[in-house]
Design goal:
Order of helices and strands: HHH
Strand content: under 5%
Distance between the termini: 49 Å
Largest sheet: none
Structural class: mainly alpha
């Protein structure tokens, strides 16, 4: 499994890299992972990564209205 390229930049998809590193950490302790990110964290990261492409164009187009709505919901 190749983790970095020749310029020491991370390679591959982030979600698959984190999943493979987390599963490997369950068998071989690797540094400061402290048990790894866990399944719930990996699922949330994957959903944000995949669904963010659908939500971001809408959010950027309606940013001012959404900001006002969020502030009203927070009570500011």
């Amino acid at each position: 499994m190749k983790i970095t390229d020749r310029y020491f930049q991370p390679t591959g998809l982030e979600v698959s890299r984190l999943t493979s590193m987390s599963s490997l950490n369950k068998f071989i302790p690797m540094g400061a992972w402290n048990g790894g990110p866990g399944l719930k964290c990996l699922v949330i990261l994957m959903l944000n990564h995949k669904l963010g492409r659908l939500v971001m164009p809408f959010a950027m187009r309606h940013e001012m209205r959404l900001h006002r709505l969020i502030n009203r919901l927070r009570g500011r």
